[in-house]
Design brief:
- There is one protein chain.
- This protein is of the alpha+beta class.
- It contains 6 helices and 7 strands, in the order βαααβββαβαββα.
- The chain has a 7-stranded mixed sheet with strand order 1-2-3-4-5-7-6, with helices on both faces.
- The N and C termini lie far apart (about 60 Å).
Length: about 190
């Protein structure tokens, strides 16, 4: 008698990052809603979270995915098994030194899927795509009170660059700090340059 066959190693999941495609918009809107209601409850006004228009959000994501304003805009999703669990969006950004830059406009991982590397994979994929297009700097606006995102970006080599702005939500003002990283520095590090 042979012992029963065993499946492969336990705990392995099919995880990847890919470009968002038409049909992903409802899942992306769900990730945004769940993440905002869970992780950003203390940062965003209750009126914004409670008055969420799920269909309106899905429609906006459908346009961003299916008809981006230009080739330097994009939406990526993190997938585990067949579930969309995270999203990153990027667009061109202006910087004071007029260097080619891209803005990470969205980086969200649904909290129940957190701490599995999805955020890091999304961030790396955005950096790779931006670098391929000759972009030297990535920037992102982060609420000043969002210590989790700030800590994540810091651990990935990002830092605040001294710029700040106030975002009017209609019912409150959120102070945001701009974070940045230099992609050409990362490429230099990969080549072993000083």
């Amino acid at each position: 008698m042979h012992p029963p066959s065993r499946p492969g190693p336990l705990g392995r999941a099919d995880v990847r990052v890919r470009r968002a495609q038409p049909g992903d918009e409802a899942a992306v809107a769900r990730v945004q809603l769940v993440t905002w209601r869970t992780a950003y409850r203390a940062l965003l006004p209750a009126e914004v979270l409670d008055g969420w228009d799920e269909q309106g959000a899905a429609d906006a994501w459908a346009e961003a995915i299916g008809a981006p304003p230009g080739p330097d805009h994009g939406v990526l999703v993190a997938v585990e098994s067949d579930d969309v669990v995270g999203v990153a969006a990027f667009a061109p950004a202006g910087t004071p030194d007029d260097q080619p830059a891209a803005e990470l406009t969205t980086l969200l991982v649904e909290p129940r899927w957190g701490r599995r590397g999805h955020g890091s994979r999304l961030l790396a994929a955005v950096a790779d795509l931006a670098g391929e297009r000759g972009v030297g700097t990535l920037v992102s606006w982060v609420p000043e009170a969002d210590e989790v995102t700030a800590g994540f970006l810091r651990s990935a080599g990002w830092a605040p660059d001294g710029w700040a702005r106030d975002l009017d939500t209609g019912t409150a003002t959120i102070r945001q700090l701009r974070w940045h990283t230099r992609l050409d520095d990362e490429r230099d590090d990969d080549r072993g340059a000083p």
